Each structure stands twice: as structure tokens, then as C-alpha cells.
Amino acid sequence: MIRSSMGKCPASPVGGVAAALMAIVLLASATIAHGTALIWQERPLPTPDVQFLQVASSGTMLLARGFDIDEPFGPGLLFISDNGLDWTPIDPGLAGRSVDAIGFALDHFVVITEDGELLLGNDDAASWSTRPAAVDPSASIRGVVEHERRVWMLATWRFGPAAAELVSSADFIDWTTEYSSEAIGVLFDPILGNLTAGDGALALTKMSPPPAVTTGAALALSSDGPDWLSFSSNNPPAGPPVSPGGLAWNGSAFVGLAAPPLDGSPTPLQIVQRTPDGNSDVFEYPDRVGKFRTLHGGPDGLVVQQLDDDAHRLWTSRDGTDWFEESVVPSGTFRGFARWKGGWVGVGTTTIRGVPRQALPIPTLPLGGLTVLAIVLALAGSVAVARRRPTSPSGSSTPGG
To answer: CA 197: distance to chain centroid?
Structure first.
């Protein structure tokens, strides 16, 4: 069920202008690798002391959440990018506060500060406004998604009357508490994974009880927020538990990675799919063994990160059944991915972008010394070829030409 192929660069035309352009592209694209369907490029982050945690996309702009590795619990850092590779720091009103979560919902970027205040940015992140906290400021926001034209947030507490609450709003102002774990504290607790929205359903992962607390997760499903179909240790679904490393909606089912073993050893790739009514399927790929750790995506595509000791790899899929190994071997590890122009942008210790060839702009580069040399050499070669070409109508060379 796994397919793997390596993309090939097309043969360059012989013509002088085309050869010159090809030389420019090759000089500018030293970090580009051609995978099965996407062209990948990886770059360092803006400064070496910064790492990224999350990325959200509006379709035209990307927003990333980061932190200073020398001060991991210090002020939050936010960056924007219009290409997924070059990032510019912004401060839409953090005022030194840390950031709990970011997302994109109801046509707005959403930033949740440490005290619960909402910072809302338009789809190009050019203008920002604020909204009061949706829950008690002592909560930590673990997820921000859009579902049924409402924004949903999952709030958790380490201490307090409620272990967790799920709230929703149609306007970022009036909030409804859709669910509180005061009812059954075993469903929600402070050790929660992902909140994911699908067509007519919500899903979240809840960490399993010890000893699997670091690797396994149960899955709860809901069509409306208050009523949840819970998969607990007393009523397990078919197949392995879902890894806390990622959960996505593929258009018909929630898709997750099978939880890795406690010792972290390599295993065959296993993909767990569960429909909103609780039916489960498990797809196993015995010929692909590795340390598969994160899954990201949505109805238009999925990406899995493989973090083996010798190399890092990326796998992509349309729906979670057939997987393609991308030929890029990233140097970094990635905490978040967002869809971007038919491809992906990943952020973590570096930033990486993979997009279809047709989505890339024609490069416009300053005429540095190497670029000028490449053009001169290419044009000189084309002139030499032209001098050797037949010039008579019959195709025979003209003596003395």
C-alpha cells in the first residue's frame, strides 16, 4: 500500500536563454530536493536561539509561534511569513506575555495569551484587535479549531474546580461552555492531546493511564460538544491506541498514528482511522519500519514525520491510506505543519516548505558575480553551438562558415 518514487528534474533546453535561466535556478536552489510530488526547501530560523512550536495558515499568510531556547518560559514570540521560508517577527500586543496557542478560525488568526486574552488578526496579519478571555485566566488553552462556523477552544487546569472545559463562540465575544469535565472527570484531564474538527464531528485525544501515559492516548468523539463517545481503557476501540503526536480529519474519518512502544523502538507504520460513529480501521505497512512520531493535515492531505536515528524523513498522503516517501532528508525536526499552496510548511528547529512545482514563482535574483558568470558561460555556449549549426536550407554546412 506504500508507494515511493523519486522525482526527476526535467532536461534543460539547449537554447541560450533557457540555459542561462537554468543556471540561475540551480545557483539559487542548493537546498531544493525533488520529491515524489513536491519541491522541498529548508532554511534556518531567523535567529539560532529561536525554535518554533506551531504554525497556522490563512491561505495567504502564515503565523508561527516560537520561543527563545535560552528562556523557554519567557515572553512569547510570533512570526509571520508569506512564503513559508522567510519569517518576520511581530508583536500584535503580547506585552511580554507568553502564548498558550495559535490557530486560524472564522477568517482570523487567533493568538491566546498566558492570561487567556485573545488577539485576533485579519487574514494577512496586518491588523489586530483584542477580545477578553473566554475562560478563567488560570486555564491553559490546548487547542483552537473552527467547527460548524464557530471557534472552539479546549481549556485545561492542573488545579481547580474543573479539569477541562470545551467552549465555543460564533463571534469571539459570547462564549458557550459546551462541555465540562466536572460531569465525568475521567474523560477530560490536564494531560490532553489534540482537539481536531471534522465534518459534523469533533475529536480529541486523551492520554492513557499509566504506564502508557507517555505514549498512548484514548480517543473521544462528539458531533455537538456536549455528548461524547469516549474510548476509555475500559472500553477500548479496535486496534492500537492513537499517538498523542497528531490527529487529523481526512474528509471521512479521523486519522492518527498508532502509539509508539514505551521503549521508543522502530515499528511498522500503522495508521488508525476512526469514523464519527466509532468504527475503526487500522492500516499497517510492514515494509516501512521506523520511528513515526507526528501526523498533521486535513481533508486535502496528510504528512507524517519519521525521526530515525540515522535520518529524518517525511511521508505524505492524500487520505491516509497510500503514503509517498518524499525524497527530502530534513536536517531539522518539526513541531507543526500547515497546508500551503497545495503543499506544506513545517516549523520546529528549522523551517521547511514543500510545494508543487507550478506554485513556485520564477526566481528574480540580483546579478551577483556568480550569476553573471553563469549567464556569460551559458550565452557563450549557445553562441558556439549556433556557429556550428548548419546554415544552408538543405542542412549542409557552408564551407568557411
So the answer is: 16
